[in-house]
Structures are given as C-alpha cells and as structure tokens.
Amino acid sequence: MPRMHTGKDWGGALEENGGRSTRCSARQGGPIQMENPYKEPPKRCVLCGINVDYKNVQLLSQFVSPHTGRIYGRHITGLCNKKQKEITKAIKRAQVIGFMPVMFKNPAFLTDPKICNIKYPE
Amino acid sequence: MPRYELALIVKVMQRPETAAVLKRTVEALMERGAVVRNLENLGERSLPYKISKHKERHRRGGYFLIDLEAPPTIVTTMMDHLGRDIDVIRRAFIKHPLSKTEECSGIIPVNYNDKLIAKK
Questions:
Q1: Which residues are in coiled coils (chain B) (predicted)?
Q2: Would an 8 Å CB–CB cutoff place A98 in contact with chain B?
C-alpha cells in the first residue's frame, strides 16, 4: 500500500529529529536563519580598483586645491583609508621628483571634472 | 621582474646630446650590473617649478623613465654618479610600482562603538 502523504509532509524534513527539524521553523511561526538577501555590496570610494601612480599627475591634481596646491583631507575627498594614503604618498613623491607643482595646481588641469567639492564636504 | 624605476630629468639639449647623456647613463648602469628593461621618453615639458642645478636655472626639461632590474647596492653609487653629471637636473630611484589593486573590496564600515570599549 502506498504511504499516505499528508499535507504536512515536507519531503523528508519531518524524518529528522523525530519530526521537528530546524528547517521547519517557519511552520512554527519563527524566522528562517539565513544571510541578509537584501544586503548591499560594500560602498566603494572613487578610486576603488584604480591603480594610483606618481606619474599620473592629472589624477593626482584632482585631489589638490587649485588655489594653494594643498592636498585635500579625507573628509573632502571621500576616499577610503588606503587610497587616501596612497594618493598622499604619490603626490608628495611627484612633487619632490619634479612631476607636479607644489604651490599651485597645474593650470592645464583646472578644468578637470571635480571629485572633491570643498563647499559640501562629506 | 622590474625592480627599480629611474626617473630622470635631463637638461634641454639638442637630440644628439640628449642621446649621448642617456647612452652614458645606461652604460654606467650596465657596468654596475643592472639590466635595463625599457627606456621611455615622457617628452620635453616645462618643469613644475624652476630648478637650480649645477649653477644654472632650469625651466624646461626632458623627462625620461628607465625601468631596470638591479642589485640594491648600486642605488647609492648611481645617485652619486648622476649627481656629478652636469646634464642631469633631477634623478630618483623608485621601487617599480607593480599593479597591486586587485583586492580592493570597498569601504568596510568600521564599528566605532567597539573601538571605544577597551579590549581586555
């Protein structure tokens, strides 16, 4: 005689733990433990995945003030820890070696797209 | 694997003279046991600031980049040697920046609460 399939049979799940398994907790009215399916991917900063080089003066000049040539802080650039440090080191290096001006921003790069808006720091 | 990059700023000169400077630089490097991989010309540009070197004020310079593999002992000797060369405005040895940005996983939110509580 074929086994009687009741409406409560969950395909073998009932056979574990004497009829009460952890997977059936939804039946008892509790939430199933799982990873957050709506989790957003971690926020990336502007330079995530971009290689920072001291020779790339145009990129470095985007993080420097056009009036004084000073390097913008983390709260203005919005970069993550690692990238901010890399940029600072690269700018200092480029300035010493003679690739990038120190007291001002290279006029050729003044019309570049603005990444850091100093008026509304993050 | 490229070990060093030599960033060189050379005085503005006619082509044969610039060629002579580069030639003797590379020869000096090879004499000391370096293997020159590549020599790039980044063009002749105006310097970001006026540089005074060897009793001359320079406003323009020829930028060159030499990647080479070399034993670390030659760095000081080469810097000395290039310092004596009157046609070289600025020299710098840099460890070759191999691309290493494959694992940038974005900003991981830091739990500042935990940092305040002292761990025992």
A1: none
A2: yes
